[in-house]
Design goal:
Distance between the termini: 53 Å
CATH superfamily of the largest domain: Formyl transferase, N-terminal domain
Number of domains: 2
Order of helices and strands: EEEHEEEHEHEHEHEEHEHEEEEEEHE
Structural class: alpha+beta
Largest sheet: 7 strands, mixed
Shape: elongated
Helix content: 10-25%
CATH architecture of the largest domain: 3-Layer(aba) Sandwich
Strand order of the largest sheet: 7-4-3-8-9-10-11
Strand content: 25-35%
CATH topology of the largest domain: Rossmann fold
Number of strands: 19
CATH class of the largest domain: Alpha Beta
Number of helices: 8
Amino acid sequence: MSFKIPGGPSGIFYLTPVMNRELRIIYMGTPDFAVGPLKAILEAGYNVVAVVTAPDKPSGRGRKLHSSPVKEFAVQQKLPVLQPILLRDAGFSEEIRGFEANLQVVVAFRMLPEVVWQMPLYGTINLHASLLPQYRGAAPINHALINGETLTGVTTFFIEKEIDTGNIILAEKVQILPSDDAGSLHDRLMDSGSKVLVETLKMITTDTVRFRNQDSLMAEHPVIRNAPKIFRENCKINWEANSIDIHNLVRGLSPLPGAFTQLISDAEPTKQLKVYKTSFRLGEQSGKPGTILTDGRSTFAVCTCDGLVQIEELQLEGKRRMTTAEFLRGITLSDHFRCF
């Protein structure tokens, strides 16, 4: 884009000098993760002229239309809200052009067509929940936990044609705690990302932006891990895997979309269980993978290839989420049951 010029070694770039920029921002986002950053930039005094989010969707038993978390917050703030069905629609492009924004901010939204992200004078920036170039894709929080990472973070960057590959502006590291699941890590990354986004806007406003091409960082990452969208088949527990990997899968998918297993018996219909919280013990298995060990009161452990995974919170199909003790008060797990 014309306002970017090369300015130094090692893939470092600068913005052309334009002092005291007055920003007119269009904000694009949909889920809870995008609410915190929007709130932060409004509280910092930035001018958000419009919000773009997903169309309302039917959900629940009554199939009533529900708004996205970003729309709900934007309406509370009396901000104009756009909900395009097709981002490539010429009418949508003309509609956002009418707001005369000079910067677009994207947080947890769909992939934009080039005509849209190239539109503003100062470009389009994205807040991503990983330390790029690691974990490009739709589910960085989940995949970092599933892979057993101990460190992740947030990154702001300029959007380019290939997803999550643009020049990095700012990044901040966030430790992954042993107690973290996707829910708790989501909240801490949202808080960190909100601060980083505000700082990024300050840099753009005051002409102090420096950014790095991601290609210049590849040598620091011998293995690049991606974070593609998670589908149902990715959520089924394989009890023949090792205990640590199963434990990480559960925490990486909790609370949503949730890891699951099937409770099977020769004498009863198969039941589906969602598993939300586990612990593990290595070297203590006493049966084939999938064998259930329980005292019938408070413990529900499943054999793996190298130990036991103890289920601590779960949800039987059609029931609410509960502790193992609550679950065992309502069901008797005989020797005929196993997990598959």
